[in-house]
Amino acid sequence: MSDRQLPKWSELKPLLRPKPIELDATKRRLDSALTIADLRRVAKRRTPTSVFDYTDGAAEAEISLRRARATFAGLEFHPAILQDVSAIDLSTDFLGKPSALPFSFAPTGFTRMMQHEGERAVVRVADRVGIPYSLSTMGTTSIEDVAAAAPNARKWFQLYVWKDRSAGEELMTRAKEAGYEALVLTVDVPVAGARLRDTRNGFAIPPALTVRTVADAALHPSWWVNLLTTEPLTFASLASWDGTVAELLNTLFDPTMTVADLEWVRSCWDGPLVIKGIQTVHDARLVMDAGVDAIVLSNHGGRQLDRAPVPLRLLPDVREALGDDAEIMLDTGVMSGADVVAAIALGASSVMVGRAYLYGLMAGGEAGVQRAADILTAEARRTMALLGARRIADLGPQHVRLP
């Protein structure tokens, strides 16, 4: 038996490495977030319930969103060993132009409602990391102001078709004049989905000062101070609205639109055209045959038709039907860089992320969006290295098996 002895200070000193105190509270919060799920938890603490639920929630029983996330969680990676993965290249092409990463920032409505920096913060981060950003028709910063916030960023404009077609024509003209390179036409909102969290929370645009929201304000004072002391909420596409999101969508959007109306869009927009909201192989063929440049397999993040197809499950069949040359993007349920890599391996050309960066925005403004991008990038790079894939082009179905 060896004799015990008290350790000497000279032996203890090298083991004592206190972590430097970070005085910046935002940086401290964000540094502690290692995943998008961590950012979501921070966002939930810092944002009023009705606003957080608008971002986090989905339609009806939220089955579509749960299924999408369960599909990503349940897939199995098949790594190739003994590959040289000393240098990982995440770059790829979107619509014929280079992107530093295989994902883009999806269009999201009412972004300044999540955090007052809003779309300007998102487009600046997109510019820094070298990816496209899509501004929503229902964005809360104007087309021109987003363009001015990041003049060199790759900017796309997402369009909903209104009953008043002249309003859509005006938006397309403004986007073109402001330097937006592509139009993303969303086609899965003929009417608003039933987002029950919003109804139960009494969520309205702008937020109403009810007894419930005043009580919630006491728990989230900084959010309310920022809302009330910064520029009033404005929209990319209309001056104001006083009502619920569902009422807004049902009032403005055109439920009569058909594939024949793509000719009208083409007559107004001469740049790349992307159709977002494809949920069947038939419709993928239909719009590609109509001459669009790319499609997005999407069920609107589970926010429209509950029990809609899971885009990731649909992806291999659409890729087989359209062939290798078709540009196929995908969204819904993406919460990690590993999810991005899996989607590309199964046939996606690229991935759109929405909630992931919104959680970052709510957690810490522009710095939070940057943190979300950094997390996704690091996860994607690590996943590719562990799969034995050096480049995006090296990924394929051999790397992933769906449950």
UniProtKB/TrEMBL annotation:
FMN hydroxy acid dehydrogenase domain segment(s): 28-403
KW Manganese (keyword) present: no
Matches recorded under PROSITE patterns: FMN_HYDROXY_ACID_DH_1, FMN_HYDROXY_ACID_DH_2
SUPFAM superfamilies, A to Z: FMN-linked oxidoreductases
Protein family: Belongs to the FMN-dependent alpha-hydroxy acid dehydrogenase family.
Lineage: Bacteria, Bacillati, Actinomycetota, Actinomycetes, Micrococcales
Organism in which the protein naturally occurs: Pedococcus ginsenosidimutans
Alphabetized UniProt keyword annotations: Flavoprotein, FMN, Oxidoreductase
InterPro entries named among the record's database cross-references: Aldolase_TIM, Alpha-hydoxy_acid_DH_FMN, FMN-dep_DH, FMN_HAD, FMN_hydac_DH_AS
Keyword match GTP-binding: no
Cofactor(s) listed in the protein's UniProt record: FMN
Protein name per the record: Alpha-hydroxy acid oxidase
